[in-house]
Design goal:
18-stranded mixed sheet; 19-stranded mixed sheet
C-alpha cells in the first residue's frame, strides 16, 4: 500500500521536471551553406516565441536588433569564411557554436568560438523583435551594434565597433572600446562611453551622459541637461534644456541655446556660447571666450580675449571676466542694474573705454612704467558686481542695441 501511495508523487515530480525543461524553448531553425563571391557562407534562420527581454552575447560579429509589429522573435545569422575549401569552411562554422532559445522571460542568442578564431571570418546577427520588448542587451567582442524601434531599454557593449541607435523609447546605456556612437531619437536617459570615437546625439528626452577618450561630441537637442566629456576633441551643443556641463582636454566648444546653467571647460580651445538662462562658468587655458545673452558669468582664459553680452535674468549673482593677455569687451542691456569694477594691470598703451558716463575711469602711474587703469560705477541703481580684469589688453563697455 505504501508503494501505491508514493506512485502519484513520483508521477507529479516527473511532470514538474518536464515542465522545467519545457521552459527553455528551442526555436524553429534552418541552416544552409553556400558559396558567395569566392567566400563560403552559412546562413541560419529561425524564430522564437516573444519574451520580455532579449540577451545577445557573441564572441564576434555585427549585431542588429530591429523592433517592429511582429509578435514573435525571428533572426537571420550569416557567418562567412575565406577557407580554401568547403570542408575547411564547414569545420570553421562548426567551431563557432550558435544557439538561440527562450529561458523564462528572456530570449537568448549566444555564439562562441571553440578554440581559436580564424584570422579571416565575419558574422552578422539580424534579430527582429516585438517593439514592446522591455529590454535589449547586446554584448559583442568586436563588431558594430545597431538597435532601432525598441519600446524599452537598450544596453550594449562592443570591444571596438561602432554603435548606432534610433527610435528607442527607454533608457540607453552603451559602451565601445573605440568606435563611434550615433544616436537618433531616445526617450529616456542616455549613458554613452567610447574609448576614442566620436559621439553624436540628435534628440534625447532624458539626461545625456557622454564620454569619449578623444573624439568629438555633438548634441543637437537635449531636454533634461547633459554632462559631456572628451579627452581632446571638440564639443558642439545646439540646444539643451537643463544644466549643462562640458569638458574637453583641448578642443573648441560651441554652444547654442542653453535653457539653464552651463559649466564649460577646455584645456586650450576657444569657447562660444549663443545664450543661457542660468549662470555660466567658462574656462580655457588659452583660447578666446564669447558669451552672448547671459545673466551671470564667470569666465577666465590664460591668453585669449573675452566678449560677454549681459542680459536681464532671474537669480543674477556677481560675475567675473579675467584674462592674462587679451582684450575684454562687455555689452550691457539698457535696463540692467549692475555694479562695475574693472582694471588693467599693465596699462601702457592700453585703456578702458565706456559708453556709460556712470563708469569712472582712473589711470595711475605710467611716467616711469606701464601704470594701471581702473574703472568703477553703477548702472540703473547698481546690482550684482561685475569684475573685469586683464593683465595686458583693452577693456570696453558698450550698450547693447
Amino acid at each position: 500500500m505504501r508503494q501505491l501511495k508514493t506512485f502519484p508523487k513520483i508521477v507529479a515530480l516527473m511532470l514538474l521536471s518536464s515542465l522545467a525543461v519545457a521552459q527553455e524553448a528551442r526555436p524553429d531553425e534552418q541552416s544552409r551553406i553556400f558559396q558567395d563571391n569566392g567566400r563560403w557562407s552559412r546562413q541560419i534562420t529561425g524564430s522564437m516565441a516573444a519574451a520580455k527581454n532579449l540577451r545577445v552575447k557573441v564572441d564576434s560579429g555585427v549585431v542588429k536588433v530591429v523592433g517592429g509589429p511582429q509578435q514573435a522573435i525571428s533572426y537571420v545569422i550569416n557567418n562567412r569564411s575565406y577557407a580554401s575549401s568547403e570542408e575547411k569552411a564547414r569545420r570553421e562554422f562548426e567551431a563557432y557554436k550558435i544557439s538561440a532559445y527562450v529561458r523564462g522571460d528572456t530570449a537568448w542568442v549566444v555564439a562562441e568560438w571553440e578554440g581559436s578564431r580564424p584570422r579571416r571570418s565575419s558574422s552578422e546577427f539580424v534579430i527582429n523583435v516585438p517593439r514592446n520588448i522591455d529590454l535589449v542587451k547586446v554584448e559583442t567582442d568586436g563588431g558594430d551594434l545597431t538597435a532601432t524601434g525598441i519600446g524599452g531599454r537598450v544596453e550594449g557593449e562592443t570591444g571596438g565597433g561602432g554603435i548606432h541607435l534610433d527610435d528607442i523609447a527607454g533608457a540607453v546605456n552603451v559602451e565601445t572600446g573605440g568606435g563611434s556612437i550615433e544616436v537618433g531619437t531616445v526617450g529616456g536617459e542616455l549613458t554613452l562611453h567610447t574609448g576614442g570615437g566620436g559621439i553624436k546625439v540628435s534628440s534625447a528626452k532624458g539626461k545625456i551622459n557622454a564620454e569619449t577618450g578623444g573624439g568629438s561630441v555633438v548634441v543637437v537637442s537635449g531636454m533634461q541637461g547633459a554632462v559631456l566629456e572628451t579627452g581632446g576633441g571638440s564639443i558642439e551643443v545646439q540646444r539643451c534644456t537643463g544644466p549643462l556641463k562640458v569638458t574637453t582636454g583641448g578642443g573648441s566648444i560651441e554652444l547654442g541655446k542653453i535653457a539653464g546653467p552651463a559649466e564649460i571647460e577646455t584645456g586650450g580651445g576657444s569657447i562660444r556660447l549663443n545664450s543661457a538662462t542660468g549662470a555660466v562658468r567658462a574656462e580655457t587655458g588659452g583660447g578666446s571666450i564669447t558669451l552672448n545673452g547671459v545673466p551671470t558669468a564667470k569666465a577666465e582664459t590664460g591668453a585669449g580675449g573675452i566678449v560677454a553680452k549681459f542680459v536681464s535674468g532671474n537669480n543674477r549673482t556677481d560675475s567675473v571676466l579675467e584674462t592674462s593677455a587679451g582684450d575684454i569687451t562687455v555689452y550691457l542691456a539698457p535696463n540692467l542694474g549692475i555694479t562695475i569694477r574693472a582694471s588693467i594691470d599693465l596699462a601702457n598703451g592700453h585703456r578702458i573705454r565706456s559708453d556709460f558716463s556712470e563708469i569712472r575711469v582712473t589711470t595711475e602711474g605710467g611716467e616711469w612704467g606701464p601704470g594701471t587703469a581702473t574703472a568703477e560705477g553703477s548702472l540703473n541703481g547698481g546690482g550684482p558686481t561685475l569684475k573685469v580684469r586683464t593683465t595686458t589688453g583693452d577693456i570696453t563697455f558698450l550698450a547693447s542695441r
